[in-house]
Model the fold of this input.
Amino acid sequence: MTGAYAAAVGATILVTGGAGFIGSHVVDLLLAEGHAVRVVDALLPAAHRERPAYLDPAAEWIDGDLRDPAIATRAVAGVDHVSHQAAMVGLGVNLRDLPDYVGNNDLATAQLLSALAERGFDGRFVLASSMVIYGEGRYACPQHQIVGPAPRRATDLDAGRFEPTCPRCGRALEFCTVPEDAPGAPRSVYAATKLAQEHLCAAFGSETGVPVTALRYHNVYGPRMPRETPYAGVASIFRSAYAAGRAPRVFEDGAQRRDFVHVRDVARANLLALTAETPCRGAFNVASGTPRTVLAMAHALARACDAPPELAPVVTGSWRAGDVRHIVAAPERAAERLGFRAEEDFDAGMDEFAAAPLRT
Done:
């Protein structure tokens, strides 16, 4: 049972990383749509201590690591489609994390694909990718049009000069939305492993004919985010600060632009990719289409948390290696081909996020 027919009558869908923040919302939506769901999750210590109570018991559960060939074979047996959410995320602590990122993201993906090939899988494969593969984003120079920005120098960052400049004339650049055909330019170990995942899955699709959809998530927020760790996103870091009675600390000048997209919108993008009448091959930005600065998000969350004035966001002026200045999506391809448009209201989403418990 494959393709649109399988999706229409109720498919069996494997969700890897289905106990996680995004994966569990994908599980919820697929179950609500009448599909049978199998979850496999390694319960990495940086993400979970045990199977979370929020994971719907209607989903079949496999506690295991996809790097284990036996687990991968068991996970793919009899499934019609795959939503591959499992990954180690975040900037991490330092380069000693590199083997863990490569193992959990790339080796696990390779083992999953190998098991699918061995089984003769012919359904749909949806990969949770990320906007981090774009690196510093997309910029335009008044003289040289679209250019790749020069690397930001430590001396400039120390002096508070955060905006990228043109590598040809040194002028200030204007940020642009990034389309899916922009070249990959990862600036961190995590980003490099996500780009490698895309290449592995594309090669698998080319070899087998399986339609592969890579969903490039932008800054996802919402219920079930983990507490602050080196592997958490900026929204959970700020939310953890308010929960602890601390003012969130904003890097640089807070004017970095991002696209914050609600986790339920991300889950819906997965559903569309799995059930569209015609498979949607290729990469798609999954974003709200409305860029905001990191500082604006921090203030919105402060209002939602009813934080007192003394907990107002603190702009530090400090910076982190591997961070990028602006990364904002072009959402048109996802709207036209996938039928995806973000629906969740940002302010309502912040209110919900402020009231939701953070995952431990």
